[in-house]
């Protein structure tokens, strides 16, 4: 920090690279409320590298944040509540969460989340993975950070970042859709098209308090899922591979139910039609099988998790060849189809159009 005509300036560190500006204030200037920061931004008193900035803008390492002097704060912020201390984990909980670890390096930890364990807490949810992360700190200065989520009853691969900088990197990777996630699921019935794409916008279903999603062509956000049939059990059920190209809440579950093939055990979206007879478990049959993502150093993480016991038993009961799921070729993302690739293509096209317009103006002004 330095002082300049009463103003305070801060240089963004590596651990804050990619986060929102308002989050930077929560980390480093907790006494500046969101309302104060917003007022500074509206009046031009808040600057990033000398330019006006909004609280929701993302910042980069090395940029300089200019903050008004303390006198500019209209009123002192209310006294902060004392930070609630997390209870120390028992040896049993530490062993439980450490047994989930599939991969660990300087930037990331990949775990195999069991079905029935929520990723984060909520109403009536006291036991969750987020509450166990102290057991995965190991040699890092802080506890790992959640990068994405899995539904409570969905099992499988889940990525954790070991620093704020790694979290920002992985967050960008997921947002740009260059990370590849592969899920396995058992569904009711067999799709007529064995390799297809579901492209249906999703929105929160009114009256459910945001606990349920539905297809909404008018107000929904874009959502796209690719599915491929691995094997079929007659016309009763199919084992499918699912690849989400967007990350909407309950996307895979809503999409499969929407095309008439709900995921086995998903009564929330498939009702009783999602239950199979013949000794098949009533639990949700949705598993995050594989994750492939680029780490901060450029190396590629490619981690897989074995299905939970109830899903393994169902695959065997239905006579599926357990090895068949890994025989499908793994699709690499095309950069041109990612948001960043599309952005660059649009920028290049705009640059070409500007050059063409300049050429037309020069042509009109040339002597005849």
Write up this protein.
- By secondary structure, the chain is α+β, with helices and mostly antiparallel strands.
- Helices cover 23% and strands 24% of the residues.
- It has 8 helices and 17 strands.
- It has helices spanning 21-28, 34-42, 91-98, 164-175, 251-258, 267-270, 309-317, 339-365; strands at 2-4, 7-11, 47-48, 51-52, 64-67, 101-104, 108-113, 145-146, 155-161, 180-188, 195-199, 202-204, 213-215, 224-233, 237-244, 286-294, 300-304.
- Strands 6, 7, 8, 9, 10, 11, 14, 15, 16 and 17 form a 10-stranded mixed sheet that branches. It has a 5-stranded antiparallel sheet with strand order 1-2-5-3-4, with no helix packed on it.
- A hairpin with a 2-residue loop joins strand 1 (2-4) and strand 2 (7-11).
- The protein is globular.
- The N and C termini lie far apart (62 Å).
Query: What kind of sheet is the major sheet?
Result: 10 strands, mixed
Instruction: State the secondary-structure class.
Output: alpha+beta
Number of strands: 17
Overall pLDDT: 87
Strand portion: 15-25%
